[in-house]
Specification:
single chain, 128 residues, alpha/beta, five-stranded parallel β-sheet, 5 helices
């Protein structure tokens, strides 16, 4: 059975593209969203192994996405990695039920990969 993809949600094109490339190089299947609105649309239709979620985004922010996951997609469980430079937002996200961990920006790419592997089941990767 194919593995579920990883969803990368960030309004910063450079960060989103870099994270996508790194995860694909590590053999994860990756999808992306440019903001919380697009993320919610994708989460409404698809299941993901883990979600890398920025907090500060236009239209719909990351905390709203976390609330959506908690309310509408509770089976996602603790598979959300929050990526943020906002320390206040990080504290709020850390309280959110679905969040696996908060990764402060700028983040170490090896740490990001380790967290994604942990969320995806201890090192298992998705087929590309």
């Amino acid at each position: 059975m194919p593995r579920k993809p990883v969803l990368v949600v960030d309004d910063d094109d450079a960060i989103r593209t870099m994270v996508e490339r790194v995860l694909r190089r590590e053999k994860f299947e990756v999808e992306s969203a440019r903001d919380g609105h697009e993320a919610i649309e994708k989460l409404s239709r698809n299941d993901y192994a883990t979600i890398l979620l920025d907090l500060m985004m236009p239209r719909v922010d990351g905390l709203s996405v976390l609330r959506f996951i908690e309310r509408e997609r509770p089976h996602v469980g603790k598979s959300v990695i929050v990526m943020t430079a906002n320390l206040h937002g990080a504290a709020e996200a850390a309280k959110a039920e679905p969040a696996f961990t908060v990764l402060p920006k700028p983040f170490d790419i090896r740490q990001l990969i380790a967290h994604v592997r942990s969320c995806c089941g201890g090192g298992e990767t998705a087929a590309t």
